Amino acid sequence: MRRLFSFICLLLPVLSFAEASYELIIDRYMSPYSGAEDLLTLYRSLEKKEDMLLPPKENPSKGFWPTLGRLSELLLFWDPLARLTVTFQHEVFGHGYRIRSLKDTKLCEVHLDLPFPYGASGGATGFKYREEIKASDMLSVVIAGSESEYILANALNSKWTADGEIDARVANLYTNSKLGTLQYAYATEQEDVESSDSKGNDIVGYITLLNAIYQDDYMSLKKIRKAMLWNVCDATLFNAVFSSWYYVFTGKKSPHWMIPLGKGVYYLPSISTHLAPYGIEYSFDNYLRYKDRAIFAYFKKGSFGGVSYGGFGLQYDEMFKFTNISYGIRLHAFLQPRFSTSFKLQDLESGQVPPAKARADLESLKPGGALSIISKYRINNTYTFFYSDIGVKTSGYIPGFQLKGGPVVRIGISAKF
Prior knowledge:
With 417 residues, this protein is of the alpha+beta class. The chain has 12 helices and 14 strands.
């Protein structure tokens, strides 16, 4: 325990009493939730290390050379690091998590390219699967990278909501994670969809599998591109882009502008679109700041094959806050098709699955969700807390969760710095 605490002190060298909490947590199979928090904590530590080596000035220098220096810093270090971080989240905590969590899949390797301008950017996850794997499980692997990027963007947005400001060094991390699937969709060509040599493309895999399962409806590249454009409807994106240029010309952090609602409550909306195993989902995301604490609530809806589905959720990490302890809640609820089909991928590929079977699964809606309690306990009068997120989930699809039902356990440490 002492060694672990010493390691944490190295990662969290400067305590500046920021309002946002940063966690180092683990859970079974290392989900996108753990990955996002751990990556953001390491990212934050690098920012603080730079501030120790090059302490920020109260009145930063202006003029051509200081401005060029800050622009070069972003373009040559922080922006490439953001691309690499998003790719790591996509491959390791996205595809990798889903592969680790399924019984019929085995992770083989993860390849990460150097980010632009030092390399081609991008990555790949190699895995093996048994012949018995279900078609729906394979579909969940295909979309796992996309869902992990959304979870990373949401975690970062919540931290900015709590802090009330944006550090330009992390701004491009948000734009790349929030718009990752949009960029992927527009980088994919119709020829890729029609080709038999594009198995490593997530968008192509999603279209191919979804159309093979639900044979009397049709998902297309055009539909995905159109849906993903809604991700641009996000006020935080414009705040993030502004923060980069504000830093370049002034050397300072920019405010995270939100709409004041009165009595210390601030609000900012966002729209997100997701690739789900049963069709595209549209999510209306709501970020609130209350007593320097972030609250996130969403309402989602979608339809495919004439069948509608949807859900809602709430995350309030510090709903009840005391000196040495706090309690919060994480809630997800849904009504969705029974996408976890019983037929195998090999039967689907050989054309042995009748469309009526897939249609029956799509039209048979099921309710479900997940509920957990988030708690933080202060460790030995320090500014570090023991973190736990413990609850239960029903079977069904929730981004970042196992498909099957069961307990939810995430543990680690938390600090504000």
